[in-house]
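Pasting as-is:
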Amino acid sequence: MSLLGEERKQYILKVLDEKGKVKVNELAKDLKVSTETIRKYLDQMDRENRLKKVYGGAIKSSFDLIEPPQDIRENFYSLEKKKIGKAAAEFIQDNEVIIIDEGSTTLHIIRYLANQKNLTVITNSVAALNLLIDFEKKGLYNGTVLFIGGNVDAKNLRVSGSIANQIMSNFNADKAFLSLEGVCKDYGLTSYNSDKALLSQKMMDCAKETTVLMDHSKLGVRSYYKIADLNKVDRIISDEMPPYDWQAALEKSNVEWVVANEKEE
């Protein structure tokens, strides 16, 4: 490859290291080349294990294998996550029992529950628990909080494991809101961690309806542990429209796709 080509690859890796993901359209604009040229570079770099291609761009080759800590994840696509959390809250009604997992995206749902009455929130998230307690003290949350016990993961501010699974199995919920590490149209929902995957499965089993919250960086990503097939999900809320080649799979699985409103207060 020419020196210019290798320099472009180094630029792609630099942006990838800074942002965690690159987009074909943005790279084409930055490097003043066609999108076809960028896709060619990404194909080559994927084969070289220098990155991992996903729909519309690429992520770090280890990004879907190693889970960043909770405080780091909160800073990834934070504006998009706020929009998604707000959109998800609009599907919650008074008097419902809802499950909110420990994802950095689902955490934003709590900030938009002030108008709902007599809710019951079941969560395994230490961050969600603290936020709900704070909001209840300030009169911004009306309802009950049920915290699932289990093995504490201090890095990711969550509980999981066999005790958590057993406790979760005792509940029946109206809706579960989950934030996962990857969603593929063919392989379904995946997670970094086996304990988290098993608890996510249990949450889905205990709820009448499951909504997955994900920003565009999770699209087409396949991580270590499978949680469920796509047809086990009722709704996906994202900041972008689904890829065109996902339409048939979404229709077959009867999954509603919701794009979070662009306006954020």
